[in-house]
Structures are given as structure tokens and as C-alpha cells.
């Protein structure tokens, strides 16, 4: 089974710790308490990207990588993998797509908010209708951003969601 995220985007301490877990780290539920907490860098927002479209993840990663206060710490391609990644990586923010295979983003959002209340989930979707927005917020999302919105809307929403933690 292949990985669902690129280890190259992990902090070196976490990437090194994952080596002993094998190639299917996010393919099966595995948890290692020794590496679940990433050393926090003051002022840096640690972000997990969750979308089943590799090109979408790549584009978002590239754009957010230009922001000095953002660090992409991992990626997942479905909701179940996102939950596992949250356990292992402890992100500040999860950018979550809605429609994905295996487990949709709304189900994953609800689970993540229950198991990691300090993490802020921002739902990012092509579906920007009122029912989808309402369902996302009801699942516990801190915010909703349409994929039709500009990049600045996403960037500001991430920063605003993290300020809620302070």
C-alpha cells in the first residue's frame, strides 16, 4: 500500500520517526506517541492538506508555502487518512475537502474536532451552497472557504481560525 502524503513535506524529526513504521503509515491506523508531537516553531501555523486531487494539493501547497508563517506538515487524500495524520502530526489547521473516497470531509471533520479540539478544520470545497456550508459548520469546522474564492480569502481565513486559539 502506498503512502497518502509526501514525506518530503514533513519536518525532519517526524519524517525520521516515520521510517520505522513502513510504507503504509496512513494506510492503516497506527499511532506512535513518541512522534505525535511536533516541536512548535513560534509564530508558524502548521497545516495539513486534505484533498483527493493531487493537483489541488500541489497548488495549495505551493501557494501557502510562499507565506512565511505557514508550514505544510503533511497531506492526506481522504478523510480516514486525515484522521490518522492528525494523530501523528498534530497540525494547527486542517484544510479539508468535502467530497473524497473512503471517508468524506464532513465525517472526518466531525471526528477530528472530537479527538483534537485544539485543531481548527477549515472546509474548502467547490460546493459553496448554503446547505454544504451549514453542514460543515455543524460538523465542527471553524470556517468554510469556497474553492471559487481567491487565495487571499483562504490565507486570511487560516490566520483568523488560528487567532481563535489564542
Give a nutshell description of this structure.
The protein has helices spanning 12-18, 54-64, 79-89, 105-115, 130-138, 151-163; strands at residues 45-50, 70-76, 93-96, 120-125, 143-146.
**Helical element count?**
6
Q: Which blocks of ≥5 consecutive residues have pLDDT under 50?
A: 1-41
Strand order of the largest sheet: 2-1-3-4-5
List the quaternary state of the chains. single chain
The CATH architecture assignment turns out to be: 3-Layer(aba) Sandwich
Q: What number of structural domains do the residues give? A: 1
Average pLDDT rating = 81
- Helix/strand order, N-terminal first: HEHEHEHEHEH
Classified in CATH, the superfamily is Response regulator
- Global Rg: 15 Å
Count of DSSP strands: 5
What is the strand content? 15-25%
**Major pleated sheet:** 5 strands, parallel
Specify the helix fraction band: 25-40%
Query: What structural class results from the helix and strand content?
Result: alpha/beta
If you consult CATH, what is the topology? Rossmann fold
How far the N terminus sits from the C terminus, by CA atoms, comes to 39 Å
Shape, please?
Answer: globular
